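Before the break, one more example. Copy the sequence into your notebook; we will annotate it together after we see the structure.
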Amino acid sequence: MKATLIASLGVALLLFVSCGSEPIPAGEILAKVGDRVITKEDFMRRSEYTIRPNYCAGNNYIHRKIILNSLISEKLLALEHPNSPIKADSDFRAYMDGRKEQTMRQWLYKKQAFDKVEIDTTALKLANRLASRTYTIQFVSLPDSNAANAWHTATADGYDFETLSKSLNGSDTIPEKSITWFDREDQNIREAIFSGHHQKGDVIGPFALEDETYIAINLSGWVDKPAVTEAAKMQQWEDIHTRLVEVAADGIYKRYVGSVMADKGMNLNREVFKSYAIRTAELYLRSPEEKKQMLNRAVWNAEEQVFTESLNDLPGGVPGDAILFDVSGEVWTVDRFEAYLKKHPLVFRNKKMSHKEFPQQMKFAMADMVRDYYLAQKAYELGYDKVANVVQAAQMWEDHYVSRQSRNDYLISVMADVSDSTKLSEIKILETFMDPYIDSLQSKYSDVISIDTDMFEDIKLSNIPMMVSNRNVPFPLSVPAFPRLTTDNKLNYGRKMED
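Here is what the structure looks like once it is written out:
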């Protein structure tokens, strides 16, 4: 059985610093803590891409100093505990490798696709005319090319869209939705609707989607709401440019992936896969309460909301040495597959599915995983594991979890004899126990801490609570959770960074 390896990409690009040659370190350095750096970009993203606690949720100077102290404290705890037990945990090491390789693939996307995009003014003007339009469409989904051919035959015999749609749906209701130019629909749908000049009532398709199903669309109508003010027009122009670059980059990258995977075919072992998929469905389709209990077993899993559980933990699992699939002769046993899941959890294209749908969706997820495996190997070949952005991102994630574990271990040790400790609020725990501990580390490591205070004074933050995640990747969080380590707002340690 063949499964396509060139999957729907939907790649989300991290905000890397663009430059002609890779500087080391990458980005504008806001602070140095020993051999670690905190860039201005780190400060902004750790502040604005996560939910900050109330004690530093604002943009005032006091809150910004607490944020900086918190990020520095994260580095200090990592320096203080270089041999943290968490680093020896095999699952955590696999998670960190997976995190690094995801960043490497994003860098691969940047260098092989994003940086090569050029958008001409003609394309911008055409898009600008349609960007303010909202289409209302009726649609009918078709499972495969045979169904699409049958549709074409029926329309040639005189059947109209409404008759066919109601017949196929077994209902008098035809699915309907609104689509704008900026919606993140399947790219083939966007192309079909927005690339040509259509009239009300036009029927488009059936045509293939990226998941190899088909769709037929009836354009019921549209509404134009053009930008009026100059500021709105300028913003729309910038948003269109950004979206066109993203679409073009995805197209370039899809072709690049095709070249990497051109000589690779995935062959499933039917019987093993059937048994394995049934058992896997038990794991992935559990109730929200059961999933919560599973996620709580490992802090990095809980924070990411990803599943890396082995089926060997379930009674009656498939033997580990059973061959699940091969890729052009390279064998993947169940054990090898599950070991790699620690680095690359399955990413399902459909987030909601029934037990009946699960095996097909699992095939897609496995194909996407294998694709990412070979893209990571290509990124290693190109030396992207040594790119400053990749190295610093991996260090940031490791320091976050080491500091978090160190904080928890410290609090357990100092609060062991505290009566009614469970009744203490977070702010009280930080003020009573963590602030003095962090103060001692600031004093201990003061000689290796430097801060660009001029840069810090100019930083402005948003007050809007926000959680940013990437789409269709194994580890969706853009940055680690905000480090809840200290409420200290004094910068009375270290030295001013010299130019």
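The chain has three domains: 27-90+390-496, 133-225, 266-373. The CA atoms of residues 96 and 398 lie 7 Å apart. Try to locate both features in your own notes.
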